[in-house]
Design brief:
It is built from 9 helices and 11 strands. The longest helix is centred in the N-terminal third of the chain and has 13 residues. It has a 7-stranded mixed β-sheet with strand order 5-6-4-2-7-11-10, with helices on both faces. It has a two-stranded parallel sheet with strand order 1-3. The mean pLDDT is 93.
Length: 266
């Protein structure tokens, strides 16, 4: 059966760069991008053209940052999509390759972050499950020092992005993808949970702050009512642009309304 032709719109590297400039992306800034390639339309050049357009809008003095997460480097007992038989768990843990920033592919964050991860000059942070990749002159200070027991907290790139005045770009992605909200979880009384992963010395389990995107879409809609969020179109995609610091501050104040947190006085 013949494959139907694309419905478009046809989107090019220049279209993406121009759309980002109209949205308000400025040369020299730091941009944390969450992206959906399919939302843009038919992109000539695919993910490569998207990354080129992002870098064109940021210019040589700007820095592009993306989540480069590796959710598959985790305890198979927690896998759901798909699960694996319980009798496999021990062997899976014993044979799972350890994290290598240069080799380990991203998983669950889309093709654009994987393209950034392999971009010439890209740097990647050290956390084996929630790393970030960055391209540009501020990449070293953003990616270095990502603590092995701090997925998305004070010793992660998110906290550095907040301090450096970075902005978030949601390019066809919803607030469920907004990693900046997770930084607020580390500042609220979230419980610690055991998190397992492969390590050079064998399987390692460490206590970590529990993180979840539960309530993030509702939190994002609330955020737009209370804080200035630039909205527009890039290609066919809905795009949003706002400071990391604004998102974190709003989540610190409002996240508890969408999720139950332990009472610190209990």
């Amino acid at each position: 059966m013949a494959i139907p032709p694309p419905t478009g719109p046809l989107v090019t590297r220049d279209d993406i760069a121009d759309g980002l400039r109209r949205l308000g992306v400025t040369p020299g800034e730091i941009l944390l991008a969450h992206t959906s390639l399919s939302s843009l339309g038919w992109v000539n050049g695919g993910a490569v053209a998207v990354v080129q357009g992002l870098l064109d809008a940021l210019g040589p003095s700007g820095t592009l940052v993306v989540p480069a997460h590796t959710s598959d480097l985790s305890d198979p007992a927690c896998w759901e999509n798909p699960p694996v038989p319980e009798e496999w768990w021990e062997r899976v843990r014993a044979t799972m390759p350890v994290y290598d920033p240069l080799v380990t592919p991203t998983r669950g964050v889309g093709v654009v972050p994987e393209t950034v991860r392999t971009w010439p000059g890209a740097l990647r942070s050290a956390h084996p499950q929630t790393s970030f990749a960055a391209v540009g002159p501020r990449a070293p200070e953003i990616t270095e020092g990502h603590a092995a027991n701090c997925r998305l907290g004070e010793h992660s790139p998110l906290a550095r992005l907040e301090r450096l005045g970075a902005r978030v770009l949601l390019l066809g992605a919803g607030y469920g993808s907004c990693t900046s909200f997770h930084l607020a979880e580390y500042r609220l009384p979230a419980p610690l949970v055991p998190v397992g992963r492969p390590a050079p010395g064998g399987w390692l389990t460490v206590p970590e702050v529990a993180i979840s995107s539960e309530g993030f879409e509702e939190l994002g809609r609330d955020f737009e009512r209370e804080r200035p969020v630039v909205r527009g179109k890039v290609g066919a995609a809905d795009a949003r642009l706002f400071p990391v610091a604004d998102a974190v501050a709003h989540a610190e104040r409002r996240l508890a309304a969408y999720r139950d947190f332990p009472d610190p006085a209990a």
